[in-house]
Amino acid sequence: EKERRKMASQEDYERDLAKYTDKEREALYNNLKGQFETQLMQSTAHDARKKCFRLCVNNPQPSLSPAQTQCFNQCVTRYNEARIVVASSLRDLQRQMERLQQQQQQQPK
Question: In this predicted model, which residue has the larger pLDDT, 70 or 108?
Answer without folding.
Answer: 70
